[in-house]
Amino acid sequence: MSETEGRSVNVVFTPSGKRGRFDAGTSVLEAARKLGVDLDSVCGGRAICGRCQVKPSFGAFAKFQITATAEGLNAQTPSEARYAEKRGLGDGRRLGCNLALLADAVIDVPAESQVHRQIVRKRAEARDIEIVPVVHLHYVEVRQPDMHDPSGDFRRLCESLREQWPDWGIAEDVRCDIAVLSYLQKALREGDWKVTVALRDDDQVVAVWAGFRERIYGLAVDIGSTTMSGHLCDLRTGEVLSSVGVMNPQIRFGEDLMSRVSYVMMNPGGEEEMTRVVREAVNHLAAQTTAEIGAGPDEILDLVFVGNPIMHHLMLGIDPIELGGAPFALAIDTAVEVWASELDLHLHTGARVYALPCIAGHVGADTAGVVLSESPHLQDEMTLLVDVGTNAEMVLGNRKRLLACSSPTGPAFEGAQIMHGQRAAAGAIERVRIDRETLEPRFKVIGCELWSNEEGFDKATAGHGITGICGSGIIEAIAEMYLAGVVDSSGVIRGELADRTPRVIADHRTFSYKLTEEVWVIQPDIRAIQLAKAALHAGAKLLMERMGVAEVDRVILAGAFGSHIDVTHAMVLGMIPDCDLSRVWSVGNAAGTGARIALLNKSARGEIERVVRRIEKVETAVEPRFQEHFVDAMAFPHKTDPYPNLARAVDLPEAPVAVAVEDGGRRRRRSRRG
After folding, report:
1. Which pTM value belongs to this model?
2. How many CB atoms neighbour CB 101 within 10 A?
């Protein structure tokens, strides 16, 4: 009998979160196929195509209740070794077809190994930004040295700057980065004493180029817990030259932030690993964005980043453990400026990195970026900003007062914890409508412009098929089910409708709604969305209560995910408080826009640093009223709060009346419309 015979092992795949139990010795590719994990392969498992590359993760994963070690996997096979020699394998990667599961394991599937890769929303939002550069370019002709003047090249460079640019207020005591001095003389002589100087804050020479140079670049980065985006900008004109989005590689250590903190707690040195991979991702963004315009990352002179407190700390190399428990203490809550090289970023030798300030332990620099972008502190209207993500950060207020909080919404809004849920990728259902009379659905999938009831839809989707439902899709599906009467206000699928439509199907002790042959909405899916939206609403309600207002003048949904939520459906579910629907809108990645503003306007950096100090933090974890608001918010759209603005815009169902129904000698409760 072999050593593995008769044993079974657990495996968890990230970022999908799908898990299962298999006989020891099962290949990762086979396990992935049985679980429906999106792992590519075209060679039939013969280690030829290399498309099934995966990256095992090691350590104690509290959320999965798994401790994964290298000994739980087989050694590299001869087939893998041949592939690695001929075509190369990335650091720590294995071929899924040759990787055997000998013990419990956590396996990360990189984006390039997925057939249906997530669409990372990377577009830079159109925005007028006043350009007040931190770094200026100055073209100067420098007096040559001679035997009668012993002054150094740098002294004469500074004199030329002040003489030829008299209106710029260039400081008398201009300083110079040590890296510049190493090539200053070479640049002067190669340029025949004509050079372009990059001057930071009018008193620091950070770069010198021989001859005339017209462009320098800056990179604005939003480090989200799930996705990251980078926008390469011309620092002189503010033009966005290219934008790139990637998955945050930290996701293999945990889907949500607390899982990642837990990983650090249970795996000494885990914070260093997470810092390394997120910095590698930023280097990747720098390389990709510059490659798109035919430049290189060594031409980037300034980088600004935003992120939630845990992403912020890990990017800076700060252990995030203190953020994992009360009182959620930040290591630093002011802005940070460091050399790019201090963060292992491969940019220009004179490049600096600026991180916006965090607001509190659960409200980070990304929220500061949203505030800078949307400027509630300059408005008279009572504005609610909601940055929707794995954690929802909210800011409420106007020019007189600002409050902020964070609510633990979890990953359900992004398609996780949903039976057929997935992240946004080709083939995922993203839009849903349900006929109020027939209860028949129609839908749209990512990658196809047609609705399912339009001619040519089947042909248009034949390339990828329907693979699941993403966050915006599940929100619309449940909201439409409620509007059509398939779901009552308590979130229960009405089983009596099974006699009326084949879409409602008995599922053990509950019922499900069949959206398509591939995608069903089951009762636990609705509960997951209820929990997420209740946390979101309760946070907003807590802020309104603290502010002493019964309603808000406008609601702004931020975040790449927020930009794809239909605001009417969001309000139907009660994700946000009642508001005139014409005063509710999405602004896309406002955190990234805030980073771009801080990159291009040095005055904005001082502005947000001052505003952040004014924001009052409300900690939902210790507020007793949060739980009360949470329970009331579980209903659609809410248990007690009226939604007059929504009712005027949408024909809301009447509240259900519970009645007792005799059924085969058994007595059970059923909902009907009053």
Report:
1. 0.82
2. 25
